[in-house]
Amino acid sequence: MSAAARSVTVTFGATTALADVSVEVKPGQVVALVGGDGAGKTTLLRTLVGETAPDSGIVEAPAKEQIGYLSAGPGSWAALTVRQNLDFVGGIYGLTGNALAERREDLIDRAGLRIAADRQASALSGGMRRKLGAAMAMQHRPELLVLDEPSTGVDPVSRIDLWRMISEAAADGAAVLMSTTYLDEAERASELVVLDRGRALTTGSYDDVRAGFTGTITATTTPTRPDWSWRRGRQRREYWPDGPPDSDAEVVTPDLEDIVIALSMTRRHQEAPV
Ligand SMILES: Nc1ncnc2c1ncn2[C@@H]1O[C@H](COP(=O)(O)OP(=O)(O)OP(=O)(O)O)[C@@H](O)[C@H]1O
């Protein structure tokens, strides 16, 4: 089934972690939540899996046993081996005998963990541990798979394994909602929700996000307005919300990173005291 959060607001004391945020994820889709530190990604995921109660808004999600969740924490038991972790979680969800063994060994291969299958989770690299956590979350083929920064700390080659696992879970019919701080990988998701300090700056497919972006971004070495500019590689970018500048500055086609930074800057400027 689909899962959704509709106009959800979550506060912690004086902090508004989410303000009127909506997201919907359908079977077969991978929806990526992107945003920097403190944007509200973890809070939205925890709200979807029922670990945080919203102050207002509606959450629609499958029953607990139909949810697979990799939290921002370790996601596995340090003293258990890779196989023992998978067996333990599989057992909780009622997998036994050959079905359990086949699923476990299949996931070990997909996660590239064969060489570490009998190693304790505490002895895995950070990236291997994230992949084990993702494998554990998807082992019982949940209807809703929720992954909190599954690729953080995972090297670029292992991220390919991880994305293959995520795509296969979606192809298998799961609705997948994941958070990431890597904007290049978020471009691969079916839908994006860009969060910034508790608010959704933009949502939709990457094409929708690009089509909805207004203004012009230029590449320069000497920005004329430093508070509308940022570094990209050896150059700097400069954002012109109201259209191209009156100069021969090189106009660039923005990627997701440019768009997210430009939208966040616009918000900062709108909220700055006048
Ligand atoms: N249990 C809590 N008590 C108080 N404040 C909280 C709590 N959980 C989150 N917050 C605050 O809510 C805001 C959103 O936090 P959240 O963890 O959802 O962001 P995030 O996008 O996942 O960021 P990060 O990638 O840094 O974890 C932050 O300002 C955070 O400090």
TrEMBL record:
InterPro entries: AAA+_ATPase, ABC_transporter-like_ATP-bd, P-loop_NTPase. This is ABC transporter ATP-binding protein. Keywords: ATP-binding, Nucleotide-binding. It comes from the Bacteria. It holds the Pfam family ABC_tran. One of its GO terms (molecular function) is ATP binding. The keyword Nucleotide-binding applies. SUPFAM superfamilies: P-loop containing nucleoside triphosphate hydrolases. Residues 3-222 form the ABC transporter domain. The lineage of its organism: Bacteria, Bacillati, Actinomycetota, Actinomycetes, Mycobacteriales.
